[in-house]
C-alpha cells in the first residue's frame, strides 16, 4: 500500500491496534465458498452453526452437497437464516463448480481464467452478488480482489473517505487505487481489520471513545 493516504493510513492504524485477524476461518477453500453464501444477511456465529451441521454429516464437498436431498440440506442450513433461499444458492454454486470440472477441487477454478472473467462467471451464478463473488475470489481462490461490505461503507463514510452514493464498483476502485497490484495478503488483512472494527467499534451506534481511529474520524469529531 502507499505510505500516505486515506485507506493506507487506516490499514496501518488498524494493523497496529488489532494485529493479524486470520480471516477467513475455514478448513478448505470450498468451506470458504460455502461460508460466503451462508453469511449473506446473517451474523457469522449463525454461519458457524450451519457449517458445523454440514461437517457433522461429512457434507462439506461439492459432490456431497449435490447428493443430499434438498430438504435435508435446507434443515442443515437452518441456523444461517433464509435457509431455503441459501439452499438454492449453495446448490447453484455447486452445480457451477461441477460444470466447470472442479467439483473435486474447487480452488482450481482460479486457474481457468483471468480475474475479470472469473468474476463475471461467478456473478452469473444464482444468488451470487458482487460481495459474495469477491469474497470467493479473495479468500477461497487467493486472488487479489478487494472486498467491499457494509462495514467498509460505514467506516469509510464516517472517516470522510467515502461519499454515501458511491456504487460498489466505485468504492472498490478507490480502495484498489491504494493497493499494490497482486497483493493478496494486504487485501485480505485490510478487509478483515475493517470487519473487526465494524463489529466491535464502528457499529450503527458507535463506540467512538474506544475506537483506535477516534483521533482521525470526522464522525467522532462531530459526535
TrEMBL record:
Keywords: 4Fe-4S, Endonuclease, Hydrolase, Iron, Iron-sulfur, Metal-binding, Nuclease. Residues 38-200 form the HhH-GPD domain. SUPFAM superfamilies: DNA-glycosylase. GO terms for biological process: base-excision repair. InterPro entries: DNA_glycosylase (IPR011257), HhH-GPD_domain (IPR003265), HhH_base_excis_C (IPR023170). It comes from the Bacteria. GO terms for molecular function: 4 iron, 4 sulfur cluster binding; endonuclease activity; metal ion binding. This is Endonuclease.
